[in-house]
Write a structure and sequence with these properties.
Layout: E1 11-12, H1 13-20, H2 28-40, H3 43-65, E2 70-74, H4 84-91, E3 96-101, H5 104-113, E4 121-126, H6 132-139, E5 150-154, H7 163-175, E6 182-188, H8 199-209, E7 210-211, H9 219-223, E8 230-231, E9 237-238, E10 254-260
Helix pairs in contact: 1-2, 2-8, 3-4
């Protein structure tokens, strides 16, 4: 979740991610840095696509199989095809979705494109992941925190460099959602068993040439974000393999999981 103003002189994660998944909402600096990172770490495009497909499968699963009707999507990034509200409201037109980001280009696009059904609600709040209290307070204008909420945190905690701070953010949010709520999370890893060792030099280059800075974590550290929650099958896995229709999907060094608050 980027800075407070639009700066087109430095590559930014929301725009570079948009470039990697084939979007048009990016600038030359984003393309240049994106190409350099992809040259160092070719899996990055696969990661970007796999993360997006994971979002679709997770939202469909929660809406169809668990009856989830409220979604809090923190660090949504730039709107593209099949956003959270579009998937959820196709299944349940009365679904209510709140998007959270604080990058100005995301804000501009979100207000234009993130419109939902008349039966449900779609809102966007300009807030920072480092301030969970503000997120929860402002989201409560649209979401009923007395009923289950799916908290989506896809590729966002990797921008919270301090591990204890990242865990504290998750714990504060989970503490305020009721039983039956879900945490949906993806996070890049440096674990070699899923090909993550290539993330390290690529992230070093990113941190020297783009914003905001990013980090990868080990599987055990990522699993700890779900402490006190019940992981749903298949647990914490490469996000490309989470409930994928094709078990031959290439493994990517980005873990994903969905867990329920008991």
């Amino acid at each position: 979740m980027g800075g407070a103003r639009l700066d087109t002189s430095v590559a930014h994660n929301a725009r570079v991610w948009n470039y990697w998944i084939g979007g048009k909402d990016n600038y030359e600096v984003d393309q240049r840095v994106g190409e350099h990172v992809a040259g160092m770490f070719p899996l990055i495009r696969d990661i970007a696509r796999a993360d997006r497909w994971f979002l679709g499968r997770a939202v469909r699963f929660l809406a169809e199989e668990r009856g989830m009707r409220q979604f809090l999507d923190i660090g949504t990034g730039l709107p593209t095809a099949d956003n959270t509200h579009e998937i959820a409201q196709r299944i349940a037109p009365d679904a209510r979705i709140v998007y959270v980001d604080n990058d100005p280009i995301v804000l501009a696009h979100a207000r234009t494109l993130l419109t939902g059904t008349s039966e449900g609600a779609t809102d966007y709040i300009d807030a920072d992941v480092h301030d969970p209290a503000a997120i929860l307070e402002r989201a409560s204008a649209t979401l009923d925190f007395g009923r289950p909420v799916a908290v989506m945190m896809l590729g966002i905690l990797n921008f919270v460099l301090d591990y204890d701070a990242a865990r504290d953010i998750v714990q504060k949010i989970v503490a305020e959602i009721p039983s039956g709520s879900c945490l949906v999370l993806t996070h890049p890893t440096h674990d070699p068993e899923v090909g993550g060792e290539g993330q390290i030099p690529a992230m070093r280059f990113w941190n020297e040439n783009a914003t905001p800075p990013i980090t990868a974590r080990g599987g055990a550290e990522i699993a700890a974000f779900f402490e006190g929650l019940d992981l749903l099958e298949p647990g914490l896995v490469s996000c490309s393999r989470w409930r994928a229709a094709d078990d031959r999907a290439p493994v990517v060094p980005q873990y994903g999981a969905v867990a329920v608050k008991p």
